[in-house]
Backbone:
């Protein structure tokens, strides 16, 4: 009766191994194309490139995708093939606090005495904050 759990465990191990595979790029450095080649390729496709860096053996690009949204994408450095792309959410709420009820006060306070006044009751009215992981 104990063979059934062992067989089930081995089956899950064999099936689950590809799910745990690393998504890092493994191109030999000698075969890498220059970052400028990737920048030119993406800009010709309509991207606005903000930054290209190396992360986990891939070129990681942050920029504005041709469709108009901010994105972070990974490319294989030898072939410049897209490996993964994530759409980045706008963080405009951090810069513009008017919808929370104290943005104008902060601007007025900055013009008046150089300090932003705190909300009188310590509670900031507005949208609840949500953390997405």
Residues:
């Amino acid at each position: 009766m104990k063979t059934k759990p062992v067989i089930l465990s081995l089956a899950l191990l064999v099936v689950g191994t590809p799910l745990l595979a690393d998504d890092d790029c493994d191109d030999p450095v000698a075969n890498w194309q220059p970052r400028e080649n990737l920048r030119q390729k993406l800009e010709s496709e309509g991207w606005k490139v903000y930054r290209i860096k190396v992360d986990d053996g891939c070129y990681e690009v942050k920029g504005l995708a041709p469709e108009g949204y901010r994105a972070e994408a990974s490319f294989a450095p030898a072939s410049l093939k897209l490996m993964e792309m994530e759409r980045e959410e706008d963080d405009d709420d951090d810069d513009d606090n008017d919808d929370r009820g104290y943005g104008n006060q902060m601007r007025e306070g900055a013009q008046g005495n150089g300090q932003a006044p705190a909300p009188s009751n310590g509670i900031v009215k507005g949208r609840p904050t949500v953390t997405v992981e």
Notes: Residues 25 and 57 are 5 Å apart (CA to CA).
